[in-house]
Amino acid sequence: MNEESLTNRSCLPCDGGMAALNHDEVMQLFTQLDSGWQLDAQNREIFKDFSFKGFYRTMAFVNALAWIANSENHHPDFEVGYNHCLVRFSTHSIGGLSVNDFICAAKVDALNP
Q1: Contacts by 32-39, CB closer than 8 A, 24 or more apart
Q2: φ, ψ for residue 29, nearest 5 deg
Q3: Exposed, middle or buried: residue 30 (CB in 10 Å: 0-12, 13-18, 19+)?
Q4: b or e along 76-104 (b: 16 or more beta carbons within 10 Å of the residue's beta carbon)?
Q5: Residue 44: which of 100, 94, 103 has the closest Cα?
Q6: Alpha carbons 55 and 40: distance in angstroms, whole number
Q7: Which residue among 41, 83, 103, 104 is the one 20 to 30 A from 1 at the CA level?
């Protein structure tokens, strides 16, 4: 695995044809994320629910998240409410997690919500 900081890396195109990360690879990358991220039981998705003081701050975060996702061409699923945003990363084309998911999660953490 590349030891460079996740926030300094860029996502690589992924249209399938590669294997999802194995459990050991997932755990190594997972430890590089800020607290609050969770891993689903099948090791196919990482997710975090971000909380905010009001609707405007939530929407500002969503817009910044959209900018990151568009820049990296790697798009999360998210659910937005008045004062929170649940963010889910998974690489759908491989049915599990890739390095791209962790790169984007680290960049979201760097927003300091």
Answers
A1: 32/5, 32/6, 32/102, 32/106, 33/6, 33/102, 33/105, 33/106, 33/109, 34/109, 37/105
A2: -75, -35
A3: middle
A4: bebeeeeeebebbbbbeebebbbbbbbbb
A5: 94
A6: 28
A7: 41
Amino acid 34 reads D
51-88 residue pLDDT tens: 999 999 999 999 999 999 999 999 999 999 999 999 99
The reported pTM is 0.91
For residue 51, what are the β-bridge partners?
Answer: 84
3-state SS assignment for residue 95: coil
Locate 63 and state its tokens.
Answer: 């817009």
pLDDT digits (tens, 9 = 90+) for 13-58: 877 778 999 999 999 999 999 999 999 999 999 999 999 999 999 9
Q: Write out the two tokens for 54.
A: 């009001």
As to burial, measured by CB atoms within 10 angstroms (0-12 exposed, 13-18 middle, 19+ buried), residue 63 is exposed
How far apart are the C-alpha atoms of 77 and 56, rounded to whole Å? 20
